[in-house]
Amino acid sequence: MALIQVNFLSKTLMRTVPINVILPVDKLLFPGMPERDDKPYKTLYLLHGIFGNYTDWVSGTNIQRWAQENDLAVVMPSGDNMFYVDNPKISSYYGEFIGKELVEITRKMFPLSKRREDTYIAGLSMGGYGAIRNGLKYHDTFGYIAGLSSALIIDDIEKRTDDVQFFFESRSFAEGCFGDLTKVKNSDMNPKWLIKKLVEEKVDIPKIYMACGKDDFLFKANQEFKDYLDELGVEVTFEVGPGGHEWDFWNRYIYKVLQWLPLEKNSVGIDSGNIGI
């Protein structure tokens, strides 16, 4: 399994950015097993949470092994702590970076499918929000969206103050990410606003998967978003399991995401943990 670190100059972020890419081009097979057809790879764009970076998913989960088993390419960028949205005031275009530039440049670099039905986006916590928001905004690009413990924090965001314990709960932090907080609710930064707009426009909405631990502090927000999708008649797969805001939960449920996605599900190859003896 090839794990590739790439640094490239981003036009939307105006700096050199790192990404990790899992690419199963070097998969070894047991004798007699059929070779994979020479065709582009289905691709998952996988977003980390707050405090994290492009290495999180590889170090925190078994995504590398599972990607190999399913002949899936996985692209993992860094979103800093910016919630994967655009803030023109500080020339920070993380939404456009995720939804457009990253997809375009990785398709130039690697043998990735350009088909919408082969292009997926997922994430955890802040990255879950980023996946849902950008998956909906760039619905012509992504056919499937998955959010784990998604930080769906837009409701009442304009009421925030700076009298809080953690920086990411403060008004100042939210303004740094989202700009004028009084305008967020009725903008494309709000997944509820986005999905309602797509329903009204009768757009082909990507398939949506959500999961959250029943002990997660974000459970209520995830349940409310799921209920909102139900009200709009939008199909969503929603799963609840034991656990909180933690890697054990995300490791279990990223595996479930891969089971939910329409992947090739080819056979396990040969690696250091599986050499047939």
Question: Can you tag this structure with a few keywords?
Answer:
277 residues; Rossmann fold; alpha/beta
Question: Could you explain the architecture of this structure?
Answer:
The chain is α/β, with parallel strands linked by helices and 277 residues long. The protein has a single domain (2-29, 37-260), classed as Alpha/Beta hydrolase fold, catalytic domain (Rossmann fold). Helix content is 31%, strand content 21%. It is built from eight helices and ten strands. The strands form two sheets. Strands 1-2-4-3-7-8-9-10 form an eight-stranded mixed β-sheet, sandwiched between helices. Strands 5-6 form a two-stranded antiparallel ribbon. Strand 1 (2-10) and strand 2 form a beta hairpin. Helix 3 crosses helix 4 (126-137). The radius of gyration is 19 Å and the shape is globular. The chain starts with a strand and ends in a 17-residue tail after the last helix.
What percentage of residues falls in helices of 4 or more residues? 25-40%
Shape from CA axes?
globular
CATH topology: Rossmann fold
What's the total number of strands?
A: 10
Tell me what portion of residues adopts beta-strand conformation.
15-25%
Mean pLDDT score, rounded?
A: 93
Can you tell me the CATH class? Answer: Alpha Beta
Distance between the termini: 20 Å
**Uncertain regions: pLDDT < 50 for 5+ in a row?**
none
CATH superfamily: Alpha/Beta hydrolase fold, catalytic domain
Q: How is the main sheet built? A: 8 strands, mixed
Q: What is the total domain count?
A: 1
The SS-based structural class is alpha/beta
- Overall radius of gyration: 19 Å
Main β-sheet, spatial strand arrangement: 1-2-4-3-7-8-9-10
Order of secondary-structure elements: EEEHHEEEHEHEHHEHEH
